[in-house]
Amino acid sequence: MSEYVPCMDNVEEIRRLRLSANVERYERHCPREGKGLDCVVPRPEGYQVKIPWPKSRDEVWLSNVPHTGLVEDKGSKKWILIKKDKFIFPGGGRANKHLNQISKMVPDIAFGQRTRVALDIGCGVADFGAFSMQLNVTTLSIAPKDVHEHQIQMWSNWTLDDGMLLLEANRMLRAGGYFIWAAEPVYKHEKNLREQWAEMEDLTTRICWELVKKEGYIAIWRKPLNNSCYLNRDSGVQPPVCDSNDDPDNVWNVGLKACITQLPENGYGGNVTTWPARLHYPPDRLQSIEMDAYKSRKEIFKAESKFWNEIIDGYVRAFRWKGFKLRNVMDMRAGYGGFAAALHDLQIDCWVMNVVPVSGYNTLPVIYDRGLIGIMHDWCEPFDTYPRTYDLLHANSLFSLEKKRRKCEISTIMLEMDRMLRPDGRVYIQDTVSVIDEVKEIASALGWVATQRETSEGPHSSWRILLCDKRM
Protein backbone atom coordinates (compact mmCIF):
# COMPACT_ATOMS: atom_id res chain seq x y z
CA MET A 1 0.00 0.00 0.00
CA SER A 2 2.93 2.39 0.58
CA GLU A 3 3.60 2.39 -3.20
CA TYR A 4 -0.05 2.72 -4.23
CA VAL A 5 -0.78 4.46 -7.56
CA PRO A 6 -4.60 4.37 -7.82
CA CYS A 7 -5.06 4.33 -11.61
CA MET A 8 -2.16 1.93 -12.19
CA ASP A 9 -2.71 -0.49 -9.30
CA ASN A 10 -6.45 -0.91 -9.73
CA VAL A 11 -6.48 -4.71 -9.49
CA GLU A 12 -10.26 -4.84 -9.12
CA GLU A 13 -10.86 -3.02 -12.41
CA ILE A 14 -8.21 -5.04 -14.25
CA ARG A 15 -9.92 -8.25 -13.11
CA ARG A 16 -13.37 -6.91 -13.98
CA LEU A 17 -12.23 -6.06 -17.51
CA ARG A 18 -10.34 -9.39 -17.75
CA LEU A 19 -7.10 -7.69 -18.75
CA SER A 20 -4.64 -9.84 -16.75
CA ALA A 21 -2.95 -11.18 -19.89
CA ASN A 22 -3.54 -8.12 -22.06
CA VAL A 23 -1.26 -5.16 -22.73
CA GLU A 24 -4.21 -2.90 -21.87
CA ARG A 25 -3.71 -3.80 -18.19
CA TYR A 26 -0.82 -1.29 -18.21
CA GLU A 27 -3.09 1.55 -19.30
CA ARG A 28 -4.82 3.94 -16.90
CA HIS A 29 -7.72 2.29 -15.04
CA CYS A 30 -8.97 4.63 -12.31
CA PRO A 31 -11.22 3.47 -9.45
CA ARG A 32 -14.92 3.81 -10.14
CA GLU A 33 -17.07 6.28 -8.21
CA GLY A 34 -17.18 5.33 -4.55
CA LYS A 35 -14.15 3.05 -4.88
CA GLY A 36 -11.44 5.72 -4.66
CA LEU A 37 -8.83 6.35 -2.00
CA ASP A 38 -10.42 6.94 1.40
CA CYS A 39 -7.34 6.77 3.62
CA VAL A 40 -3.83 8.16 3.94
CA VAL A 41 -1.23 6.13 2.03
CA PRO A 42 1.41 5.04 4.58
CA ARG A 43 5.10 5.72 4.08
CA PRO A 44 7.49 2.73 3.90
CA GLU A 45 8.96 1.50 7.16
CA GLY A 46 12.17 3.36 7.94
CA TYR A 47 11.40 6.29 5.62
CA GLN A 48 14.01 9.07 5.93
CA VAL A 49 14.19 12.74 4.99
CA LYS A 50 15.14 12.86 1.30
CA ILE A 51 18.71 13.44 0.20
CA PRO A 52 18.84 16.99 -1.20
CA TRP A 53 19.52 17.90 -4.83
CA PRO A 54 21.95 17.61 -6.57
CA LYS A 55 23.26 14.74 -4.45
CA SER A 56 19.93 12.93 -4.92
CA ARG A 57 20.70 12.70 -8.64
CA ASP A 58 23.32 10.07 -7.73
CA GLU A 59 21.84 8.35 -4.67
CA VAL A 60 18.59 7.85 -2.74
CA TRP A 61 17.70 6.05 0.48
CA LEU A 62 16.87 2.39 -0.12
CA SER A 63 14.25 2.54 2.66
CA ASN A 64 12.38 5.31 0.80
CA VAL A 65 12.01 3.22 -2.37
CA PRO A 66 12.06 -0.39 -1.11
CA HIS A 67 12.27 -2.03 -4.55
CA THR A 68 15.39 -4.21 -4.55
CA GLY A 69 14.07 -5.84 -7.73
CA LEU A 70 15.04 -2.67 -9.58
CA VAL A 71 18.65 -3.81 -9.41
CA GLU A 72 17.72 -7.13 -10.99
CA ASP A 73 16.02 -5.30 -13.88
CA LYS A 74 18.58 -2.52 -14.34
CA GLY A 75 21.73 -3.87 -12.71
CA SER A 76 23.03 -5.71 -15.76
CA LYS A 77 23.54 -2.35 -17.46
CA LYS A 78 24.87 -0.71 -14.29
CA TRP A 79 22.06 1.87 -14.22
CA ILE A 80 21.36 1.26 -10.55
CA LEU A 81 23.23 -0.49 -7.72
CA ILE A 82 22.73 -1.05 -4.00
CA LYS A 83 25.48 0.19 -1.70
CA LYS A 84 24.77 -0.29 2.01
CA ASP A 85 21.54 1.64 2.73
CA LYS A 86 21.29 3.48 -0.61
CA PHE A 87 20.45 3.05 -4.26
CA ILE A 88 23.37 4.37 -6.33
CA PHE A 89 22.94 5.69 -9.89
CA PRO A 90 26.36 5.47 -11.60
CA GLY A 91 25.13 6.50 -15.06
CA GLY A 92 26.16 10.15 -14.96
CA GLY A 93 29.24 9.75 -17.12
CA ARG A 94 27.29 7.73 -19.67
CA ALA A 95 24.45 10.30 -19.71
CA ASN A 96 26.87 13.16 -20.32
CA LYS A 97 28.56 11.23 -23.17
CA HIS A 98 25.11 10.53 -24.65
CA LEU A 99 24.15 14.22 -24.57
CA ASN A 100 27.53 15.26 -26.00
CA GLN A 101 27.22 12.74 -28.83
CA ILE A 102 23.79 14.06 -29.77
CA SER A 103 25.12 17.62 -29.79
CA LYS A 104 28.03 16.64 -32.05
CA MET A 105 25.79 14.67 -34.42
CA VAL A 106 23.30 17.53 -34.89
CA PRO A 107 24.63 20.86 -33.53
CA ASP A 108 21.36 22.59 -34.52
CA ILE A 109 19.63 20.77 -31.65
CA ALA A 110 21.42 23.32 -29.41
CA PHE A 111 20.42 22.07 -25.96
CA GLY A 112 19.35 24.91 -23.66
CA GLN A 113 18.79 27.36 -26.52
CA ARG A 114 16.75 26.00 -29.42
CA THR A 115 15.92 22.83 -27.50
CA ARG A 116 14.48 23.59 -24.09
CA VAL A 117 11.69 21.01 -23.54
CA ALA A 118 12.30 17.27 -23.87
CA LEU A 119 10.15 14.18 -23.46
CA ASP A 120 12.07 11.05 -22.41
CA ILE A 121 9.84 8.11 -23.33
CA GLY A 122 10.81 4.87 -21.59
CA CYS A 123 13.20 6.78 -19.33
CA GLY A 124 14.71 3.96 -17.25
CA VAL A 125 16.10 5.66 -14.13
CA ALA A 126 15.81 9.11 -15.79
CA ASP A 127 19.53 9.78 -16.30
CA PHE A 128 18.74 11.77 -19.46
CA GLY A 129 16.41 14.13 -17.57
CA ALA A 130 18.69 14.41 -14.57
CA PHE A 131 21.79 15.37 -16.54
CA SER A 132 20.14 17.45 -19.26
CA MET A 133 19.14 19.92 -16.52
CA GLN A 134 22.71 21.22 -16.43
CA LEU A 135 22.21 22.13 -20.10
CA ASN A 136 19.08 24.18 -19.26
CA VAL A 137 16.79 21.49 -20.67
CA THR A 138 13.66 20.56 -18.71
CA THR A 139 12.54 16.97 -19.26
CA LEU A 140 9.31 15.10 -18.68
CA SER A 141 10.42 11.52 -18.01
CA ILE A 142 7.86 8.81 -18.74
CA ALA A 143 8.21 5.12 -17.88
CA PRO A 144 5.55 2.41 -17.98
CA LYS A 145 5.34 -0.31 -15.34
CA ASP A 146 6.15 -3.97 -15.90
CA VAL A 147 4.68 -7.01 -14.18
CA HIS A 148 7.12 -6.60 -11.28
CA GLU A 149 5.82 -3.08 -10.60
CA HIS A 150 9.11 -1.55 -11.76
CA GLN A 151 9.76 1.06 -14.40
CA ILE A 152 11.16 -0.33 -17.64
CA GLN A 153 11.86 0.69 -21.23
CA MET A 154 9.17 -0.75 -23.48
CA TRP A 155 9.46 1.45 -26.54
CA SER A 156 11.64 -0.80 -28.71
CA ASN A 157 9.08 -1.09 -31.53
CA TRP A 158 7.31 2.11 -32.53
CA THR A 159 5.64 0.67 -35.63
CA LEU A 160 3.08 -1.58 -33.90
CA ASP A 161 -0.67 -0.89 -34.16
CA ASP A 162 -0.39 1.07 -37.41
CA GLY A 163 2.40 3.14 -35.88
CA MET A 164 0.09 4.85 -33.36
CA LEU A 165 2.86 5.30 -30.76
CA LEU A 166 5.10 7.10 -33.25
CA LEU A 167 2.17 9.10 -34.58
CA GLU A 168 1.43 10.28 -31.05
CA ALA A 169 5.08 11.29 -30.67
CA ASN A 170 4.70 13.14 -33.98
CA ARG A 171 1.62 14.98 -32.64
CA MET A 172 3.52 16.13 -29.56
CA LEU A 173 6.66 17.12 -31.48
CA ARG A 174 7.04 20.75 -32.46
CA ALA A 175 7.39 21.64 -36.17
CA GLY A 176 11.08 21.19 -36.99
CA GLY A 177 11.61 19.26 -33.74
CA TYR A 178 13.87 16.23 -33.38
CA PHE A 179 13.13 12.60 -32.52
CA ILE A 180 16.11 10.70 -31.12
CA TRP A 181 16.02 6.90 -31.03
CA ALA A 182 18.73 5.18 -28.99
CA ALA A 183 17.96 1.47 -29.32
CA GLU A 184 19.34 -1.89 -30.40
CA PRO A 185 17.67 -1.87 -33.86
CA VAL A 186 19.79 1.19 -34.74
CA TYR A 187 23.13 -0.62 -34.46
CA LYS A 188 22.67 -4.39 -34.02
CA HIS A 189 22.35 -6.82 -36.90
CA GLU A 190 20.22 -9.73 -35.68
CA LYS A 191 17.44 -10.52 -38.14
CA ASN A 192 14.55 -9.36 -35.92
CA LEU A 193 16.36 -6.09 -35.12
CA ARG A 194 17.15 -5.43 -38.78
CA GLU A 195 13.45 -5.95 -39.51
CA GLN A 196 12.51 -3.44 -36.80
CA TRP A 197 14.94 -0.89 -38.27
CA ALA A 198 13.52 -1.41 -41.77
CA GLU A 199 9.97 -0.92 -40.45
CA MET A 200 11.06 2.24 -38.62
CA GLU A 201 12.76 3.65 -41.72
CA ASP A 202 9.66 2.91 -43.79
CA LEU A 203 7.20 4.49 -41.31
CA THR A 204 9.31 7.62 -40.68
CA THR A 205 9.61 8.15 -44.44
CA ARG A 206 5.83 7.86 -44.87
CA ILE A 207 5.22 10.46 -42.11
CA CYS A 208 7.74 12.81 -43.74
CA TRP A 209 10.47 12.72 -41.11
CA GLU A 210 14.00 13.34 -42.37
CA LEU A 211 16.71 10.98 -41.09
CA VAL A 212 19.29 13.64 -40.24
CA LYS A 213 22.01 11.43 -38.77
CA LYS A 214 22.62 7.81 -37.78
CA GLU A 215 25.75 7.10 -35.79
CA GLY A 216 26.53 4.26 -33.39
CA TYR A 217 23.44 3.44 -31.33
CA ILE A 218 21.67 6.76 -32.09
CA ALA A 219 19.41 7.73 -34.98
CA ILE A 220 18.02 11.28 -35.23
CA TRP A 221 15.03 12.34 -37.33
CA ARG A 222 13.56 15.80 -37.88
CA LYS A 223 9.87 16.61 -38.25
CA PRO A 224 8.93 18.87 -41.21
CA LEU A 225 8.29 22.59 -40.74
CA ASN A 226 4.97 22.62 -42.64
CA ASN A 227 2.32 20.40 -44.25
CA SER A 228 3.63 20.39 -47.82
CA CYS A 229 5.17 16.89 -47.63
CA TYR A 230 2.03 15.44 -46.00
CA LEU A 231 -0.24 16.87 -48.69
CA ASN A 232 2.00 15.89 -51.61
CA ARG A 233 2.34 12.19 -50.79
CA ASP A 234 1.11 9.67 -53.34
CA SER A 235 -2.57 8.77 -53.15
CA GLY A 236 -3.29 5.94 -50.74
CA VAL A 237 -0.07 6.24 -48.72
CA GLN A 238 -0.66 5.29 -45.10
CA PRO A 239 -1.08 6.58 -42.47
CA PRO A 240 -3.58 9.19 -43.65
CA VAL A 241 -3.58 12.83 -42.62
CA CYS A 242 -6.04 13.49 -39.76
CA ASP A 243 -9.34 15.17 -40.60
CA SER A 244 -9.21 18.96 -40.89
CA ASN A 245 -11.57 19.26 -37.88
CA ASP A 246 -9.22 17.22 -35.68
CA ASP A 247 -8.04 19.27 -32.67
CA PRO A 248 -4.52 18.20 -31.64
CA ASP A 249 -4.82 20.31 -28.48
CA ASN A 250 -7.78 18.24 -27.25
CA VAL A 251 -5.81 15.85 -25.05
CA TRP A 252 -7.92 14.76 -22.09
CA ASN A 253 -9.31 11.20 -22.35
CA VAL A 254 -8.76 11.14 -26.10
CA GLY A 255 -7.69 7.89 -27.73
CA LEU A 256 -4.64 7.47 -29.93
CA LYS A 257 -5.25 7.97 -33.64
CA ALA A 258 -3.53 6.27 -36.57
CA CYS A 259 -3.26 9.48 -38.59
CA ILE A 260 -0.82 12.35 -39.10
CA THR A 261 -1.66 15.54 -37.22
CA GLN A 262 -1.47 18.54 -39.53
CA LEU A 263 0.61 21.55 -38.54
CA PRO A 264 -1.07 24.96 -38.12
CA GLU A 265 -0.95 26.89 -41.38
CA ASN A 266 -0.11 30.07 -39.46
CA GLY A 267 3.05 28.47 -38.05
CA TYR A 268 1.85 28.72 -34.43
CA GLY A 269 3.90 26.52 -32.12
CA GLY A 270 6.79 26.16 -34.54
CA ASN A 271 8.36 29.59 -34.38
CA VAL A 272 9.15 30.02 -30.68
CA THR A 273 12.10 32.14 -29.62
CA THR A 274 15.19 30.64 -28.00
CA TRP A 275 15.63 30.04 -24.27
CA PRO A 276 15.63 31.95 -21.97
CA ALA A 277 13.91 34.76 -23.90
CA ARG A 278 10.87 32.57 -24.63
CA LEU A 279 10.03 32.34 -20.92
CA HIS A 280 8.66 35.90 -20.94
CA TYR A 281 7.83 36.42 -24.61
CA PRO A 282 4.06 36.06 -25.27
CA PRO A 283 3.94 33.15 -27.76
CA ASP A 284 1.80 33.11 -30.90
CA ARG A 285 -0.36 30.31 -29.54
CA LEU A 286 -1.51 32.64 -26.77
CA GLN A 287 -3.99 33.97 -29.34
CA SER A 288 -5.51 30.51 -29.89
CA ILE A 289 -6.50 29.94 -26.24
CA GLU A 290 -10.28 29.87 -25.86
CA MET A 291 -11.20 32.07 -22.91
CA ASP A 292 -13.62 34.76 -21.74
CA ALA A 293 -11.53 37.91 -21.62
CA TYR A 294 -12.18 41.62 -22.00
CA LYS A 295 -8.48 42.52 -21.95
CA SER A 296 -6.01 41.42 -24.59
CA ARG A 297 -4.41 38.06 -23.96
CA LYS A 298 -0.96 39.65 -23.96
CA GLU A 299 -2.02 41.99 -21.16
CA ILE A 300 -3.34 39.06 -19.12
CA PHE A 301 -0.12 37.10 -19.78
CA LYS A 302 2.08 39.97 -18.61
CA ALA A 303 -0.14 40.72 -15.61
CA GLU A 304 0.02 37.09 -14.49
CA SER A 305 3.82 37.10 -14.72
CA LYS A 306 4.07 40.33 -12.71
CA PHE A 307 1.61 39.04 -10.09
CA TRP A 308 3.52 35.80 -9.45
CA ASN A 309 6.91 37.48 -9.42
CA GLU A 310 5.70 39.77 -6.63
CA ILE A 311 4.07 36.89 -4.72
CA ILE A 312 7.07 34.55 -4.95
CA ASP A 313 9.45 37.36 -4.05
CA GLY A 314 7.36 37.84 -0.90
CA TYR A 315 7.44 34.09 -0.16
CA VAL A 316 11.22 34.00 -0.57
CA ARG A 317 11.70 36.86 1.89
CA ALA A 318 8.95 36.09 4.41
CA PHE A 319 9.02 32.27 4.40
CA ARG A 320 12.69 31.73 3.45
CA TRP A 321 11.93 29.56 0.44
CA LYS A 322 15.57 29.36 -0.61
CA GLY A 323 16.24 27.36 2.55
CA PHE A 324 13.58 24.75 1.73
CA LYS A 325 15.82 22.86 -0.75
CA LEU A 326 12.88 22.42 -3.10
CA ARG A 327 13.33 20.08 -6.04
CA ASN A 328 10.00 18.66 -7.28
CA VAL A 329 7.25 21.29 -7.31
CA MET A 330 3.69 21.11 -8.63
CA ASP A 331 1.46 24.03 -9.54
CA MET A 332 -2.00 22.46 -9.42
CA ARG A 333 -3.70 25.26 -11.37
CA ALA A 334 -0.96 26.66 -13.53
CA GLY A 335 -2.67 29.17 -15.82
CA TYR A 336 0.00 30.45 -18.20
CA GLY A 337 2.84 29.11 -16.04
CA GLY A 338 3.53 32.38 -14.21
CA PHE A 339 4.25 30.63 -10.89
CA ALA A 340 6.92 28.40 -12.48
CA ALA A 341 8.41 31.34 -14.40
CA ALA A 342 8.70 33.34 -11.18
CA LEU A 343 10.52 30.48 -9.44
CA HIS A 344 13.04 30.50 -12.30
CA ASP A 345 13.44 34.29 -12.24
CA LEU A 346 14.03 34.30 -8.48
CA GLN A 347 16.61 31.49 -8.80
CA ILE A 348 14.70 28.82 -6.91
CA ASP A 349 16.43 25.79 -8.44
CA CYS A 350 13.58 23.33 -8.96
CA TRP A 351 11.64 21.26 -11.51
CA VAL A 352 8.00 22.32 -11.85
CA MET A 353 5.06 20.26 -13.08
CA ASN A 354 2.41 22.69 -14.33
CA VAL A 355 -1.07 21.16 -14.16
CA VAL A 356 -3.93 22.59 -16.20
CA PRO A 357 -7.28 21.44 -14.73
CA VAL A 358 -9.82 20.15 -17.25
CA SER A 359 -12.34 22.40 -15.51
CA GLY A 360 -10.59 25.52 -16.87
CA TYR A 361 -9.10 26.85 -20.10
CA ASN A 362 -6.50 24.73 -21.91
CA THR A 363 -3.36 26.83 -21.54
CA LEU A 364 -0.91 23.96 -22.11
CA PRO A 365 0.25 25.29 -25.51
CA VAL A 366 1.39 28.53 -23.86
CA ILE A 367 3.12 26.68 -21.01
CA TYR A 368 5.16 24.58 -23.45
CA ASP A 369 5.93 27.51 -25.74
CA ARG A 370 7.39 29.32 -22.72
CA GLY A 371 9.84 26.43 -22.24
CA LEU A 372 8.01 24.87 -19.30
CA ILE A 373 6.38 21.46 -18.96
CA GLY A 374 2.85 20.56 -17.97
CA ILE A 375 -0.07 18.20 -18.18
CA MET A 376 -3.86 18.38 -18.24
CA HIS A 377 -5.69 16.68 -15.39
CA ASP A 378 -9.06 16.22 -13.72
CA TRP A 379 -8.49 16.77 -10.01
CA CYS A 380 -11.45 14.57 -9.16
CA GLU A 381 -9.30 11.66 -10.40
CA PRO A 382 -5.95 10.41 -9.04
CA PHE A 383 -2.77 11.80 -10.55
CA ASP A 384 -0.41 9.35 -12.29
CA THR A 385 2.66 9.57 -10.10
CA TYR A 386 4.24 7.55 -7.30
CA PRO A 387 3.51 8.45 -3.69
CA ARG A 388 5.77 11.01 -2.01
CA THR A 389 6.90 12.58 -5.31
CA TYR A 390 6.63 16.33 -4.58
CA ASP A 391 8.33 18.69 -2.12
CA LEU A 392 5.81 21.49 -2.66
CA LEU A 393 2.23 21.59 -3.89
CA HIS A 394 0.79 24.98 -4.87
CA ALA A 395 -2.94 25.53 -5.42
CA ASN A 396 -4.24 28.98 -6.34
CA SER A 397 -8.06 29.20 -6.47
CA LEU A 398 -8.19 25.49 -7.34
CA PHE A 399 -10.75 24.50 -4.71
CA SER A 400 -13.13 27.33 -5.59
CA LEU A 401 -13.00 26.13 -9.19
CA GLU A 402 -13.64 22.50 -8.26
CA LYS A 403 -16.48 23.33 -5.84
CA LYS A 404 -18.36 24.95 -8.72
CA ARG A 405 -18.16 21.67 -10.66
CA ARG A 406 -19.70 19.67 -7.79
CA LYS A 407 -18.04 16.53 -9.13
CA CYS A 408 -16.11 15.52 -6.00
CA GLU A 409 -15.43 16.57 -2.43
CA ILE A 410 -12.48 18.73 -1.43
CA SER A 411 -11.36 15.90 0.84
CA THR A 412 -10.94 13.62 -2.22
CA ILE A 413 -8.50 16.07 -3.80
CA MET A 414 -6.62 16.60 -0.54
CA LEU A 415 -6.19 12.87 0.08
CA GLU A 416 -4.56 12.67 -3.34
CA MET A 417 -2.38 15.68 -2.47
CA ASP A 418 -1.24 13.90 0.69
CA ARG A 419 -0.38 10.79 -1.36
CA MET A 420 1.78 12.86 -3.74
CA LEU A 421 3.47 14.95 -1.02
CA ARG A 422 6.70 13.86 0.66
CA PRO A 423 6.89 13.74 4.44
CA ASP A 424 8.50 17.08 5.35
CA GLY A 425 6.81 18.59 2.26
CA ARG A 426 4.77 21.79 2.08
CA VAL A 427 1.46 22.94 0.64
CA TYR A 428 0.55 26.55 -0.21
CA ILE A 429 -3.13 27.20 -0.90
CA GLN A 430 -4.62 30.56 -1.84
CA ASP A 431 -8.43 30.79 -1.98
CA THR A 432 -11.52 32.49 -0.59
CA VAL A 433 -12.01 32.75 3.19
CA SER A 434 -14.88 30.23 3.24
CA VAL A 435 -12.93 27.68 1.18
CA ILE A 436 -9.79 28.13 3.27
CA ASP A 437 -11.77 27.45 6.47
CA GLU A 438 -12.98 24.14 5.02
CA VAL A 439 -9.56 23.21 3.66
CA LYS A 440 -7.86 23.97 6.98
CA GLU A 441 -10.17 21.56 8.80
CA ILE A 442 -9.36 18.76 6.33
CA ALA A 443 -5.63 19.57 6.47
CA SER A 444 -5.67 19.11 10.25
CA ALA A 445 -7.46 15.78 9.85
CA LEU A 446 -4.68 14.66 7.49
CA GLY A 447 -2.11 15.47 10.15
CA TRP A 448 -0.74 18.55 8.40
CA VAL A 449 0.27 21.56 10.47
CA ALA A 450 -1.75 24.39 8.92
CA THR A 451 -1.38 28.15 9.40
CA GLN A 452 -3.70 30.76 7.89
CA ARG A 453 -2.23 34.05 6.65
CA GLU A 454 -3.57 37.23 5.07
CA THR A 455 -2.74 37.97 1.45
CA SER A 456 -0.90 41.13 0.44
CA GLU A 457 -4.35 42.77 0.06
CA GLY A 458 -4.71 42.89 3.85
CA PRO A 459 -7.29 41.80 6.46
CA HIS A 460 -10.35 43.03 4.55
CA SER A 461 -9.64 40.91 1.50
CA SER A 462 -11.91 37.95 0.76
CA TRP A 463 -8.80 35.84 0.08
CA ARG A 464 -6.49 33.98 2.45
CA ILE A 465 -3.36 31.83 2.22
CA LEU A 466 -3.06 28.49 3.99
CA LEU A 467 0.46 27.25 4.65
CA CYS A 468 0.68 23.54 5.47
CA ASP A 469 3.56 21.33 6.61
CA LYS A 470 3.46 17.55 6.36
CA ARG A 471 5.75 16.75 9.26
CA MET A 472 7.98 13.68 9.43
Molecular structure report:
- The structure is a single chain.
- The chain has about 475 residues and is α/β, with parallel strands linked by helices.
- The protein has 14 helices and 15 strands.
- Helix 9 (about 295-320) packs across helix 10.
- The longest helix is centred in the middle third of the chain and has 23 residues, at about 295-320.
- It is globular and about 65 Å long.
- The two termini are about 20 Å apart.
Considering the chains and any ligands shown, give keywords for the structure.
15 strands, seven-stranded mixed β-sheet, globular, alpha/beta, three-stranded antiparallel β-sheet, 472 residues, 14 helices
Instruction: Tell me the structural class.
Output: alpha/beta
Main sheet makeup: 7 strands, mixed
The backbone outline, from C-alpha atoms, is globular
How big a fraction of the residues is strand?
15-25%
Helix content: 25-40%
Mean pLDDT reading: 90
Helical segment count:
14
| Rg, Cα atoms, Å | 23 Å
Q: Enumerate the strands of the largest sheet in spatial order, edge to edge or round the barrel.
A: 11-10-9-12-13-15-14
The number of distinct β-strands equals 15
* SSE ordering: HEHEEHEHEHEHHEEHHEHEHEEHHEHEE
